[in-house]
From TrEMBL, chain B:
Compartments reported by the entry: Membrane
UniProt keyword terms in alphabetical order: Membrane, Transmembrane, Transmembrane helix
Listed GO CC annotations: plasma membrane
ATP-binding among keywords: no
Topology term for the membrane: Multi-pass membrane protein
Xref: InterPro entries: ABC/ECF_trnsptr_transmembrane
TM regions (residue ranges): 24-54, 66-85, 114-135, 247-266
Major location (coarse): membrane
Protein name as annotated: Cobalt ABC transporter permease
Domain of life: Bacteria
PANTHER family on file: ABC TRANSPORTER PERMEASE, PROTEIN ABCI12, CHLOROPLASTIC
Source organism (scientific name): Paenibacillus albidus
Amino acid sequence: MKRAVIEFQNFSFQYRAQTEPTLQDINLTITEGEKVLIIGPSGSGKSTLAHCLNGLIPFAYPGEMTGTMRMMGQEQKELGISELSNIVGTVLQDPDGQFVGLTVGEDIAFRLENEGIPQADMIGKVAAAARAVDIHEYLGAAPQSLSGGQKQKTTLGGVLVNEVGILLFDEPLASLDPYTGKKAIELIDRVQQETGKTVLIIEHRLEEVLHRPVDRIIVMSEGRIAADLTPAELLSSDLLRETGIREPLYLTALRYAGCPVTPEMNPQNLAMMELDSCTDKLQAWYDNHGAQPESPEYPPVLELRDISFGYEKSRPVLQGLSLQVGRGEMLCIAGRNGAGKSTVSKLICGFYRLASGTILMNGRDIGSDTIKERADRIGFVMQNPNHMISKTLLYDEVALGLRQRGIMEEEIGERVHGILKVCGLYPFRSWPVSALSYGQKKRVTIAAILVLQPEILILDEPTAGQDYRHYNEMMEFLLDLNQQGITVIMITHDMHLMLEYTERAIVLSDGIKVADDRPERVLTDTDVVRSANLKETSLFALAVKAGIRQPVEFVRRFIAHDRRSRGQ
Amino acid sequence: MRATMLAYTNHDSGIHRLTGAAKLIFFAVWSVSAMITYDTRCLLVLFLFSLFAFKISKVQFQDYAFVLYLILIFFVLNHIAIFLFSPLEGVRIYGTRHDVVHIAGRYTLTWEQLFYQFNIALKYAVVIPMALLFLMTTDPSEFSASLNRVGFNYKIAYSVSLALRYIPDIQRDYENISFSAQARGIDISRKEKLPRRLKNIILILMPLILTSIERIDKISTAMELRGFGQKEKRTWYRARPFARNDYIAIGIIAGIAVLTAWITFYDGSRYYNIFK
């Protein structure tokens, strides 16, 4: 019998500012060397659970604890945050925000520096930790020059350097593109196998984490543990749909095809899954769901012709890019970090000047228009809503752009109220912005742009950091806007978003357009997928495995069907 | 992102190889010496020395050109202000009066005033190159290690290095925020009238401050989780022990400080007087 490293017994926790406990009646034991995934929607208490483990609760976020919680056999209450950090190494969500060193080497050494380890010992330990996470060639590199994946490796190195027994990953996939996320899951798996450490992963993206096996999955829901099962058992149950976590897409497809999933089929891993009993049903489902109509022709509203741009002359970010956007279309621009996708939107809005090429709007060259003039027709919503909100009251925030344009207060009131109704924010119209949730704030920023009545709406990562339910709400809302005639351009590397809500995906790589096609065709093209740090969708892999002759069309029929059944 | 001004550039030179602590001590003593003395002979020698230091540092002109121009503008403004507020300061200090030309009212240009302002100009010329050199040849992380070594609490020293770490990120935040604000019609360019412009700047600063606080919160959590501030002392991954050249540099600055102080004060006045 292996020894228990973490034990919760009838454990509850209530933040000081809350009226109800965030965690209730938690009973959980994790033994040495286990790899456990903790999933749950936003607000289910999974992050609070993580904070209890690494000691941020109660040391940084005070509150009331009842019941017991033991780490390595010792009461958590009796350990300080620094003693706990010798037991649990935490890799936080955003690798950028926790990078404290000016170079990779210093960041990894940070923990040792704080322990007062002599410099001579430190150098060897840092080198060893860096090698374990495969970042040793970048020891002298500055954080700004690293990719998201490299930053995360550095952070993991900084935790491993300290010989902790438990590794805790708090939403490790949140700010990574699909390919880098896959690599991160592989890295976690490799480190766990090489070191035998206990690994806890907190995430809501189930399919992505299951890229490598886990021993157990704990499902959190409304502050309680809703399930504690092996992956195979969990995926064969209805629990995921009940708690609002997205099941792997291939399992949804099997469900639509009327094919029951059992633990014996190995549903946790598509490559190893037993599908013999399902192939006929999948084929039948495919045949019964007719071909999807081609997307309609849209008259062009925005056109980029042969544009080039670079922040420095010697390093072009975009080279000879041409693309067209149709009126009323909903499309996305994808590509890995640094591929130039954000730059495109900034050029369209006029934040930077083109080096060469032209941008046409309704056939007219808008090269000489100012930012403000372009903003009357093209709205831009940034990824982080906190970057856009400058007023304390919701109403004032939405009215800001109109007031700056010198519109009469009466008309402003009418337009603001109208937009708030469209955005579902009308009940909050007299609220302060700070009282709203993250998703609501995001809506406020969209409302503040929509009120200027743009023809085109550009959104940078509209669903970043949101769980499945909020993702759905946001995207259905954008779809609604689109159906009211607004052209929507989204910059994203979220593959679900691409597949489910766009008719066209433009993929950039190193400043060049490498694809411009229907998303299901883009996401099944291996070369494009690789160049843009995307991932092949599991639906395609399922269709291939089941022997369906037109796997791309299968993906398309599935998405259309899925959208209809979710819309109900 | 655009090139950063006045940032550390990694060239290989004798100046770069000195430890941060040695450079910090050198710069501090150098500045105090130059501030105290009004002895033209000392200032001239120091000035030549600083030019020589610049030459061996291999720092490129374009790396500091912008800052230098900025300093020159302030330098000129400062001199005009000195003359406007106190046109006969030189006469008061040196005790004689030799007029060059009468301008208007109480404003007469005197040789004493010209000489006095020339000395002030020399002080600028002595301190500024060294300040630039110090900033551009000291690795920021080594800088905080050296602050700690010369006696500052490590928490203060580290916050300096963190500030340096986050300058590019905050610049980027600012750029994004101001872009989206401009798109909503918040104009901060000269086209807008001043009161409105100030109001608009506040609209941009609000989100910048809030996101920066968010950042600080995140980073301090991350640092706490990695044991920062738990112990009395900490070590530094990038610290370097004093080498021979560091001792030589300290020796040189000690010599300079003693010599300038002696030359300046041995006749009882800080001012070197050519009018007697």
